[in-house]
Each structure stands twice: as structure tokens, then as C-alpha cells.
Design goal:
With 149 residues, this protein is mainly α. The protein has helices spanning 19-48, 54-67, 69-79, 86-104, 110-128, 131-136. It has one domain (19-136). Helix content is 66%, strand content 0%. Helix 1 packs antiparallel against helix 5. The chain crosses the membrane at residues 21-44, 56-75, 87-104, 110-130. Keywords: Membrane, Transmembrane, Transmembrane helix.
Length: 149
């Protein structure tokens, strides 16, 4: 399918992708990769270690790996400048904030992880709602409807 036939692909002579959009995609991908690594770690420990509940560890690992698809697909969509990708990316960041808060309440090494997750989530949210990012994705705000003839 050529670019003329696919309305979601940017025009070949479109302006270059803003750095903010690239950084937002990188942060989403980083979160996705962290979920994959965490899920794989839980899965391996559940299968080879001696967890309190093997079924719960395996289920948790698989769940994290599946959840990683949301930020990874959003990151790919952001890099390809697909307007649909901002929604899943924003949802991922909003879901990360309570997780970061929970990690910050711990009395362990989870506190630095909570700080890092909070910083990444807030930075990504700021980048995703930035006007340059919105324009690059072709998202128009309310009241900015193109004339229909």
C-alpha cells in the first residue's frame, strides 16, 4: 500500500519528526522493555526458583510481558507518527504513576525505582501533550475541525 492510499502515514515531504516525539517514544519503549525484563525475571524465578506460589509467579510474569505490548506498540506508533499512538502512550504513563507511588512507599531498594518511574512517567506525559508533538501526530484539538465541503 503506498503512502497516497494509507491516510495514517505521513506525507513523504512532511516535516521531520520533532525531538520531543522521539524522546516520548524512547521513554515508552524503555517502560515496555522494563516490563518485559521484569516479566521474564518473574517467569524464570517462578519456573526455576522456589517461590511461595509458583502459579502466581508464572501468571505475574506472563501478565507483565503481555502488559509490555501497550507501551511498545505505542512507542512504535509514535515513531511512525500515528495519531492513535498517543492514547496508549498517555494511558501507560497514567498507569505508571500509581505504581511509582507504591514503590515510593516501600522501605527498600524499590524507592529509587519509584523515583525513576515517576520521573519517566511525568516527563513522557509532558512530552506527549506538547503542542509540537500534537501537531506532528496530526491531532487537532476541539473546535479545530477542517472545513468540510
Amino acid at each position: 500500500m503506498s503512502a497516497e492510499q494509507n491516510p495514517t502515514s505521513p506525507a513523504p515531504d512532511a516535516e521531520p519528526r520533532p525531538v520531543r516525539l522521539t524522546v516520548a517514544a524512547a521513554l515508552a519503549a524503555l517502560e515496555g522493555l522494563a516490563l518485559v525484563v521484569g516479566g521474564a525475571w518473574m517467569l524464570v524465578l517462578g519456573l526455576t526458583g522456589s517461590p511461595d506460589d509458583r502459579r502466581q509467579a508464572v501468571t505475574g510474569g506472563i501478565t507483565l510481558i503481555v502488559l509490555a505490548l501497550l507501551p511498545l506498540l505505542a512507542a512504535r506508533g509514535l515513531l511512525l507518527r500515528r495519531s492513535w499512538s498517543r492514547g496508549p502512550a498517555v494511558i501507560t504513563q497514567i498507569m505508571a504513576l500509581p505504581v511509582a507511588y507504591t514503590l515510593l512507599q516501600a522501605d527498600s531498594l524499590a524507592i529509587p525505582g519509584g523515583i525513576a518511574l515517576a520521573v519517566v512517567a511525568v516527563a513522557a506525559l509532558v512530552l506527549l501533550v506538547n503542542p509540537a508533538t500534537t501537531r506532528a501526530l496530526g491531532i487537532r484539538g476541539p473546535g479545530n475541525v477542517q472545513d468540510q465541503k
